[in-house]
Amino acid sequence: MPGILPQSLERGADAAARALELVLASLEDSKAEDIVSINIVGKSALGDYMVVVSGRSTRHVMAIADHLMKDLKDEGLGTARVEGLETGDWVLIDTGDIIIHVFRPEVREFYNIEKMWAAPDIEEGTLLH
């Protein structure tokens, strides 16, 4: 039937969506600010979603990333790659399906990657204030 994903792709999409729910819940639990989820399916081979958040300080950015890594590991997604944890200005976590950017507000404003990845594709309901 046209429009129906092959079963293997559907499982992959379901897994990515479930992982996204876990990521968003973890970020909310860590009091991450300005959480934005962007669907990048078909735009990049990097993954299915990109999540961009802010922490209030270097310490908060590092705590958000640490908490997320623990939650990912607890759910069997502990193979994520992490960059920038030492500095706490911009931490990138790559789960394979989801790329998470945790920024200090000034650094996020400078790079403005949400704009680069097209604001119309921000997942509805994931822009939290």
Automatic annotation (TrEMBL):
InterPro entries: Iojap/RsfS/C7orf30, NT_sf. The keyword Cytoplasm applies. Its main location: cytoplasm. NCBIfam families: rsfS_iojap_ybeB (TIGR00090). Interacts with ribosomal protein uL14 (rplN). PANTHER family: IOJAP SUPERFAMILY ORTHOLOG, MITOCHONDRIAL ASSEMBLY OF RIBOSOMAL LARGE SUBUNIT PROTEIN 1. Belongs to the Iojap/RsfS family. This is Ribosomal silencing factor RsfS. It comes from Neorhizobium alkalisoli. The gene is rsfS.
